[in-house]
Amino acid sequence: MKEKLKIGLFGYGVVGQGLYDVLQSTPAFDASIDKIVVKHKKERNLPETMFHYNPDDILDDPDINVVVEVIDNSEDAYNIVKKALQKGKNVVSANKKMLAEHLEEMVRLQKENNVSLLYEASACGSIPIIRSLEEYYDNDLLLSVTGILNGSSNYILSNVFDHDQSYSEALKEAQDLGFAESDPSFDVEGYDSLYKLIIITLHSFGTIVKPENVLTFGISNISEFDINYAREKRFKIKLVGQVERLHDQNISLFVLPRFVGRDKYIYSVEEEFNGVVVKGKAYDKQFMFGKGAGGHPTSSAVLSDITALAHGYKYEYKKRNYFKKFTYFKEGAVEIYLRYSDPEILKYFNFDSVSEEYKGPEYNYKIGFIKLSDLIKINDKLREMDIFIALTGKKLNY
Question: Does 180 lie in the same domain as 138?
Fold first, then answer.
């Protein structure tokens, strides 16, 4: 073991409290939370002397050698993590948005200041996907990582397909149970999955991709027509993030709803759980499953990172530093199901080929291949249209 870990904790919400609880019951190594910075004064289950309201009370404290950041605001998290790294403190973060938007800088700051930034909790809650990609899949055999990366949207879709709820009913239940926020757009529009996928891509193939350059479409526009279509084909719809190795050191990545059959591992991933399929040349497919959200699952991942720091662990970014670089390739074509009402919207969709088409009194759909680059160009506009898009699951054409 190294020196005692004296922790400065930012945030004492569900995850922060969960971490404190877990740490109190885990005497396996010498660590203590010495200070907690929060925004507002209120009655809490710890002595008032534990709480501070100025970030510098932790950042400027020479005795604190580990900063743990579990706050919601990504801009505040960025300022905290950046300053902590610059001051030579090791950091554990769970803020996926902040990390995805500043990955290049965060990797550089760690190297410049000879410190470690760990963030297992940012990707899939209790599933150790980042450490696995860094340590177990640390070679040139990886082909793809595909998964259900957001527990809130998966809970909603599970209730739709397993319990015959409408989307609005399932969303309300998810909100009532705390699986979805009062404003659920971060989850159901696919942003949460996108930020996790950006982080996973770095540790899978060593490539940093800006979030705004990735095709992302969520489930908020799903209709009974789409649900019934999937049921008729004996599919479920899942919100899936995927990064895949292509030819000539290229990769593709996207976050989209997908029709999933019983032959796929993620078909049976239900409720607030996450599921990740890692595919490689020698080991074919391996499946990881676990809770992706909630105070204790997330805090367990944070605790794992704190334990790793006690052993002097750092991400080596092996795919980035020791292997030939991969390039983000956007010219491949995916086969999509496009449901629409107004035929005018078809002017935005340049299908390379169409395999199935239906025109009805209220809804129409087309199934065919379309270039990722064409969809990325209208990524923001897609959310304004009365449409639903889902991958059929056919392999990318490139």
Answer: yes
pTM: 0.96
pLDDT at 251 over 80: yes
Do 387 and 330 share a structural domain?
yes
Q: Are 24 and 45 in contact (CB under 8 A)?
A: no
Q: In this predicted model, what pLDDT tens digit does every residue of 151-170 receive, in sequence order?
A: 999 999 999 999 999 999 99
With contact defined as beta carbons under 8 Å apart, do 26 and 303 qualify?
Answer: yes
Write the burial class of residue 225 (CB in 10 Å: 0-12 exposed, 13-18 middle, 19+ buried): middle
**Three-point CA angle 77, 79, 84, nearest 5°:** 95
Q: Are residues 20 and 152 in the same domain?
A: no
Of 118, 84, 127, give the one whose Cα is nearest residue 277.
127
Q: Are residues 80 and 147 in the same domain?
A: no
- CA–CA gap between residue 283 and residue 81 (Å, rounded): 37
Query: Which tens digits make up the pLDDT trace of 59-113?
Result: 999 999 999 999 999 999 999 999 999 999 999 999 999 999 999 999 999 999 9
- In the block, tokens 């010495």 appear at 34
Q: pLDDT tens-digit profile of 253-273?
A: 999 999 999 999 999 999 999
If we measure between CA atoms, which residue out of 396, 333, 331, 335 comes closest to residue 367?
Answer: 335
Take residue 193 and report the two structure tokens written for it. Answer: 């999955």
Q: Is 225 inside any structural domain?
A: yes
State the Cα–Cα distance between residues 99 and 81, nearest whole angstrom: 10
Which of 97, 196, 236, 330 does the annotation list as catalytic? 196
Enclosing domain of residue 210: 132-292+325-391
- CATH (domain of 113): 3.40.50.720
CA distance 360 to 96: 41
| Dihedral sign, Cα of residue 164, residue 169, residue 171, residue 177 | negative
Indicate whether 398 belongs to any domain.
no
Q: Tokens representing 89?
A: 């403190």
Is 196 among the catalytic positions? yes
Share of the chain above pLDDT 70, in %: 97
Q: How many domains does the chain have?
A: 2
